[in-house]
Specification:
Layout (H helix, E strand, L loop, with lengths): L1 H27 L2 H26 L6 H21 L3
Helix pairs in contact: 1-2, 2-3
């Protein structure tokens, strides 16, 4: 029960971080904020897939499906670090 609550809170927190980063990007137009918000959007998706995998369908292994957004997230962040440096 406690682990489900922690998973849900992590998903909500990453969604909030993504929203705040994107709102700040719209205000300042800094490219690194865009890449960071894309990263957190994918991490939020990863967390929501974790909640679905562990809580709702524990008999089905969704590890590949839920790992894919995390790989995309870090790829986007690395891409932003490499190509957005002045």
């Amino acid at each position: 029960m406690i682990s489900a609550l922690v998973y849900i809170l992590c998903a909500l927190t990453s969604t909030l971080c993504a929203a705040l980063l994107f709102l700040n990007y719209r205000r300042n137009k800094t490219e690194l904020l865009l890449w960071s918000s894309i990263c957190f959007i994918c991490l939020a998706l990863n967390n929501y897939l974790l909640v679905i995998d562990v809580i709702f369908v524990p008999q089905v292994d969704l590890s590949i499906v839920r790992t894919t957004p995390a790989v995309i997230a870090f790829g986007a962040l690395v891409w932003g670090f490499i190509w957005d440096t002045p």
